[in-house]
Write a structure and sequence with these properties.
Number of strands: 19
Strand content: 15-25%
Structural class: alpha/beta
Distance between the termini: 24 Å
Largest sheet: 8 strands, parallel, barrel
């Protein structure tokens, strides 16, 4: 089984159309992965996800490890059976969630000046020596891994690259991510260098463990390494060279969408894209808004994930195609104003009996009006969250279809 195959390349950019093949089916790329953090996409069932064209889910190693626990999921027959999802699943490594815990605690306990000072002295390391230093809030990065306290019961846990691999294999994910140290923004050069160094060392340990554990497995799994380096060109290039050199099945770009300006994210892609291996899938983690996805595809990215369609939908923000009517596929690449969004709680929708988007064919738009959705949100009916989620995810999946058709 060939993991990744490219069918067509754009003549105007680095965009390419391909297909990822796994034991649980195929994923057409460029693709968007719906977020099923704890094994569920909020407010929507597996059947509904299939009906809108979802081909792959992303679940969270950290959260599933804490509850219900990877051993229970394995006992249930793996994550696919546990959540009744027959198509591919990618799991992240848990590194970003540990980063988030530390960042949240630091912001709560330090002023801006104190944060900048701590950012400089947080860790000191070299390839031969690592001097650990604690984050605030019970998160401590050490040479072997990360110590943290569970936000559920306060219990201490120690997550290593090897343990992250084993958890993801127990979950039974088709694609798994190497354990990395997600660099915050802003970061000093010292911090970014230390972060990419430890990410590389951990990635090497992940691959070694992954190869040993999967050698005799009947099921097929695929490993992705993660490029770090913050917003420093030389460090991004250094990290890209290191991670690509490990020859993992796919390559991801991490440490973006962590507070940096949007143009910085595109700059990072411009730096690393020359290093990305042609015959492997390229995954941009945690991105993003529709226009950001389009720009990233132009730079050779194949895979995306983001909470924006589901999270923003729960807050009443619904994505719609340009007011000029149905967007032609090519327009997605040429016109940055190909979409907008509406806030359904706006008073002007009180008597608007049209669909959210007259060009959309999703269940929500076929059956319900803007006025009804506004009523559901105003009265705090859970159905509103469900219908908004269906529409926004359908919008994102339609966006990916348009992009693929245009390449």
């Amino acid at each position: 089984m060939q993991f990744f195959k490219i069918f067509k390349k754009s003549k105007q950019s680095k965009a390419r159309r391909g297909r990822i093949s796994t034991s649980h089916g195929v994923v057409n790329t460029p693709c968007f992965m719906s977020i099923a953090t704890r094994g569920a996409v909020k407010n929507i069932t597996s059947d509904e996800l299939e009906k809108i064209g979802t081909e792959i889910l992303l679940s969270n190693t950290y959260h599933l490890y804490l509850r219900p626990g990877e051993k229970l999921v394995k006992k249930a027959g793996g994550l696919h059976k546990f959540i009744n999802w027959k198509k591919p699943i990618l799991t992240d490594s848990g590194g970003f969630q540990v980063f988030s815990l530390g960042q949240k605690a630091r912001k709560q306990n330090f002023s801006t000046a104190e944060l900048a000072s701590q950012n400089t002295r947080l860790r000191q390391s070299s390839h031969e020596k690592f001097i650990p230093a604690p984050f605030q809030g019970g998160v401590k990065i050490e040479k072997e891994g990360v110590e943290f306290r569970s936000p559920i019961d306060g219990a201490k846990h120690f997550l290593t690259p090897e343990k992250s691999m084993q958890i993801q294999l127990d979950l039974g994910a088709d694609m798994i991510m190497a354990f990395d140290e997600c660099t915050p923004y802003p970061a000093t050069r010292e911090y970014a260098k230390n972060s990419l160094d430890i990410t590389y060392r951990w990635a090497a340990r992940c691959k070694k463990y992954f190869i040993a554990k999967t050698a005799k497995m009947k099921s097929k799994h695929f490993l992705f390494g993660i490029i770090q380096g913050s917003t420093f060109k030389d460090y991004r290039e250094e990290s890209a060279g290191q991670i690509v050199g490990l020859d993992t099945d796919g390559v991801a770009i991490g440490g973006v969408s962590v507070g940096e300006p949007p143009e910085k994210m595109l700059e990072v892609l411009d730096w690393v894209s020359p290093y990305l291996p042609e015959g492997k899938p390229h995954y941009l983690m945690g991105v993003g808004y529709p226009d950001q996805i389009v720009e990233a595809v132009k730079r050779g990215i194949d895979m995306f994930d983001c909470v924006i369609p589901t999270r923003n939908g729960r807050h009443g923000e619904l994505f719609v195609w340009s007011a000029s009517g149905r967007i032609k596929n090519a327009s997605v690449f040429r016109n940055k104003n190909f979409y907008s969004s509406i806030h359904i709680t706006n008073k002007k929708f009180t008597s608007d009996f049209g669909p959210v988007d007259k060009t959309c064919d999703c269940y929500t738009c076929r059956n319900f009006s803007r006025a009804y959705l506004r009523h559901l949100f105003i009265t705090k009916e859970n159905l509103g969250l469900r219908l908004a989620t269906i529409h926004n995810l359908a919008f994102y999946l339609e966006l990916m279809k348009k992009i693929r058709k245009n390449i």
